[in-house]
Amino acid sequence: MIVANELEIHLLHESALVSILKRDDLQMKESEIWDYLIRWGTARNLTLLKNLEEWSDENFNTLKATLRQCLPLVRYFHISNSDVMYKIKPYRKILDKQLWNDWKQHLILPDLTIKNKNYQKE
Q1: Which entry of 6, 49, 91, 93 is 20 to 30 Å from 58 by CA?
Q2: Domain count, the chain
Q3: Which domain of life is it from (predicted)?
Q4: Over the range 75-99, which residues count as b (16 or more CB within 10 Å of their CB) and which as e?
């Protein structure tokens, strides 16, 4: 994205990040945007452990709160199934439960309308 130095990723203000995410002309895959959001959110919370397997529910809630303005802006249904499984599923606790259910539905019946209007397919 815009911040090249991984050590300074946390310096990007949330309002700037939200503005970037609202753009339709980002030359990035949605899974890359997701990766960036996770790095940005964890960089802003130095108490989060590096090993995700050691995270508590409180850790996930902290990340979810940090990303609350950004999560609805990800175009989840543009992410490949393999990236969903390997990149997003480990963080499913920060996602709306209906989104996760809609994803499963989308895998089985991709033409069916999703229920959660906050996360559109297109």
Answers
A1: 6
A2: 1
A3: Eukaryota
A4: bbbebeeebbeebbeebeebbeeeb
pTM of the model: 0.83
Residue 19 lies in a domain: yes
Residue 38 in domain: yes
Structural domain contains residue 117:
no
Task: Note the pLDDT tens digit of each residue in 31-60.
Answer: 999 999 999 999 999 899 999 999 999 999
User: Cα separation of 81 and 61, whole Å?
Assistant: 25
Nearest to 21 by CA among 57, 62, 73, 60: 73
Tokens 């002309």 map to which residue? 25
Nearest 5 degrees, angle CA 7-CA 11-CA 16?
Answer: 130
